[in-house]
Amino acid sequence: GAVVSQHPSWVICKSGTSVKIECRSLDFQATTMFWYRQFPKQSLMLMATSNEGSKATYEQGVEKDKFLINHASLTLSTLTVTSAHPEDSSFYICSASKGPAHQPQHFGDGTRLSIL
Amino acid sequence: RKEVEQDPGPFNVPEGATVAFNCTYSNSASQSFFWYRQDCRKEPKLLMSVYSSGNEDGRFTAQLNRASQYISLLIRDSKLSDSATYLCVADTGNQFYFGTGTSLTVIP
Fold it and tell me: Looking at the predicted structure, is the pLDDT value of residue A17 above 70?
C-alpha cells in the first residue's frame, strides 16, 4: 500500500490564528512531500515541495513566511498557515511519493480550512 | 501554454456508455504519466500509471502516444460511480504537472 494520512481533516478558526496541518506517510518513507491548495471547482495548485531535512521549495507567488513547511522526518511534513485570514480558506492537500522519480504521488485526505 | 491540457468537459454520458478523455502534454521530457480521479471535496486517488505505451485495468484503458504527446483514458461500460473529475498528470522526473481535470457525469 501507500497510505498518506493528513490531520486535521477540517478546521474552523478565527482570523489571526495560526493553523498547523500534518501529513504522514504511514507505510513508506517519503523523502519528498508536496503541498497543494485547491479552491472550489478549480484545479490543484502546487504550493511547495517539502524535502526531508532541508528547506522547502516554494512555487512562485507562495509566501514562505505565510506558509511554513517543516519536514523533520521521512514520514512527517507539516504546513503551518500563520496568522490565517479568510482569504486563506481553502482545501489543502499533501502528497508523497514512495521512491525516486516516476513513482506516482499518493494523496492525503485533505484539510478543509475555514477562517472566520 | 500549459504543461498539461485537458478538455474540462463536462462529459455527460448514459450508464453503460464508453467515454474517452484525451490529455496533451508539452514537455517532451515527460516520462511517466498518471490518471487520477477526484470526487467532489475529496483528495485525488490514483487510477492508473502509464509508463510505456499503455495500461489496462478492468474497464479502464490508458494509452500513451509519445509522438503526438498525448495520453488517453477510455472507460467502458460506464457506471454511476464513475462520475468524478479525472486528472491527467505528466512526470518529467523532476516535477509533476497536473491537468485541470475533466468532469464526467454518468447519467442513469
Answer: yes
The mean pLDDT value for A21-31 works out to 91
End-to-end Cα, chain B, rounded Å? 37
- From A104's Cα to the closest Cα of chain B, the distance in A is 7
Chain B residues with CB under 8 Å of A6 CB are 43
Q: Name every chain A residue with its beta carbon within 8 A of the beta carbon of B49.
A: 104
Q: How many CA atoms lie within 13 A of A83 on its CB side?
A: 4
Cell of B44: 485525488
- At residue B29, the 3 state secondary structure works out as coil
| DSSP H/E element including B39 | none
Is some CB atom of chain B closer than 8 A to the CB atom of A5? no
Distance, CA of A47 to CA of A63 (rounded, Å): 9
Q: Is the confidence at residue A36, as pLDDT, over 80?
A: yes
Closest CA to A76 of A53, A58, A99, A104: A53
Q: Please state, in angstroms and rounded to a whole number, the distance separating the CA atoms of residues A92 and A110.
A: 6
pLDDT at res. A43: 85
Q: Residue B40: closest CA among chain A residues belongs to which residue?
A: A41
Taking CB atoms and an 8 Å limit, are B93 and A44 in contact across chains?
no
- Asked if residue A19 has pLDDT above 90, the reply is yes
